[in-house]
Amino acid sequence: MISARYRLNVSFTDRGFKPFFRGSFFALKKRLNGLDHSRIGVVLSKKYSKKATARNRIKRDIFRFFQKNRQFLEKYPEPSDIVFILLTTENQMKDNKEAFTKELTNVLSL
Prior knowledge:
This protein is an alpha+beta fold. It is 36% helix and 22% strand. It has a single domain, classed as Ribosomal Protein S5, domain 2 (2-Layer Sandwich). The protein is built from 4 helices and 4 strands; from the N terminus they run βββααβαα.
């Protein structure tokens, strides 16, 4: 799991976020945070899955991905709070796991 320093509490994310990236699986919104590093938060609705365990699993997977690529959060040109919003359902994610991972790696190159 990514350390608390890089996690954003999404319950406080209500205003000031601008769209940053929109793909077929997820959207990213960001705002400047004034810190020396970026933070990431993940938002999943019940539309993804009715089961909290499935939603928590994908959150852990996303945080794990950003932990492996921590340099993205540390060296991002302008430190920002980034909100990761999942747009698909659990069944679509299971069918297209490789495409989802590829889209995530494309975000790192932005």
